[in-house]
């Protein structure tokens, strides 16, 4: 399984990974989606077009982590283990973090994309940002409140959404965003 994950996280499978994120997010919003509904645009951004949404997908991680490094290290550890005890790790329950802290992880990449795409004159009002949140040993405290989406409006994105292991949320959906995103704006949905 770890070797399959290493393969899935390679650059060669980027499109497949982005489709998985979009598909799982849209399903969490209770929208039926088939593989044929996932369209690869002729140029990027966006990464994936689904039911009228132009998703620009990115993964939110801690700065010290690299997308595939954790899993490559696990594969090496599994291959080199001589006894079962070498594979055991002490359990550490995930820490709950607030909605505001999640946004602190989200904003640096979002600001970077805003700057880069503005320079290229990409019409941000046609882009639906979808951030897959993959933080190591942190989970969203679903009882916390997300701040108002003024920063997203100011940057000009059509919509901004997040998707994690146990939740998804449309943080902001402008008037021209697809209906299924507008319908779920400002609602946190538990996915497990």
Side by side, the strands of the main sheet go: 1-2-3-5-7-8-9
Spans of at least 5 consecutive residues whose pLDDT stays below 50 are none
Indicate the radius of gyration in whole angstroms.
Answer: 18 Å
Would you tell me the structural class of the helices and strands?
alpha/beta
Relative strand content: 15-25%
Count of β-strands = 9
- What is the overall shape? globular
Q: Can you identify the CATH superfamily? A: Protein of unknown function DUF1780, putative endonuclease
Description:
The protein has 192 residues and is of the alpha/beta class. It has a single domain, classed as 3-Layer(aba) Sandwich (Hypothetical protein pa4535), CATH 3.40.1540. It is 34% helix and 21% strand. The chain contains 6 helices and 9 strands. It has helices at 2-8, 14-28, 69-80, 99-119, 150-155, 179-183; strands at residues 38-39, 48-50, 53-60, 95-97, 128-133, 138-140, 159-163, 167-173, 188-190. The strands form 2 sheets. The chain has a 7-stranded mixed sheet with strand order 1-2-3-5-7-8-9. A hairpin with a 2-residue loop joins strand 2 and strand 3. Helix 1 (2-8) runs antiparallel to helix 3. The longest helix has 21 residues, at 99-119. The chain is globular. The mean pLDDT is 86.
